[in-house]
């Protein structure tokens, strides 16, 4: 995205929505990170000019997305994780992660950016922050692993 003169526009998102089969299944308040990685492998070769040290592409690690929200009565993420724990091959789902700005909520606007998570599955689900008698929010943190992440700029 650019604004006059080719300067990039910095994105600010306030809501993060997971959709499966076009249906909103969970809304998050924090995106802790989208992670993709390719290991750097040292390559050593000898030739007429001596020893050459370079770095080359190595093994790729599966991409992951970590999201956090206040725990509510929605149980989709919990049920999805339970399907993974039971080894259900149908638990791999292609889903979208939509980022909304404060001015474009999921109910009234278009996402500012959408990530397509191919063959995603929740590898980790953590519910924390529980203390009897306290008034703090209980948080649910979900890590989704997937085969590939594709970025689709907003409309």
What CATH architecture label applies?
A: Roll
Low-confidence stretches: none
Secondary structure tally: strands: 10
The CATH class is Mainly Beta
Summarize the amount of helix as a percent range: under 10%
**Strand content range:** over 45%
In angstroms, what is the radius of gyration?
20 Å
Mean pLDDT over the residues: 87
Helix and strand element order: EEEEEEHEEEE
How far apart, in Å, are the first and last alpha carbons? Answer: 11 Å
Tally of structural domains: 1
The helix tally amounts to: 1
By CATH, the topology is Pnp Oxidase, Chain A
Dominant shape: globular
User: Structural class, please?
Assistant: mainly beta
- Largest sheet, strands/sense/barrel: 8 strands, antiparallel
Summary tags:
10 strands, Pnp Oxidase, Chain A, eight-stranded antiparallel beta sheet, 155 residues
List the helices and strands and how they pair.
Blueprint: E1 2-3, E2 7-8, E3 15-20, E4 23-28, E5 30-47, E6 50-70, H1 76-85, E7 93-100, E8 113-128, E9 139-145, E10 148-153
Antiparallel strand pairs: 1-2, 3-4, 3-7, 5-6, 6-9, 7-8, 8-9, 8-10
Q: What does it look like?
A:
Strands 3, 4, 5, 6, 7, 8, 9 and 10 form an 8-stranded antiparallel sheet that branches. It is built from 1 helix and 10 strands. The protein has one domain (2-153): Pnp Oxidase, Chain A (Roll), CATH 2.30.110. The termini are close together. The chain is 6% helix and 59% strand. The radius of gyration is 20 Å and the shape is globular. The chain is mainly β and 155 residues long.
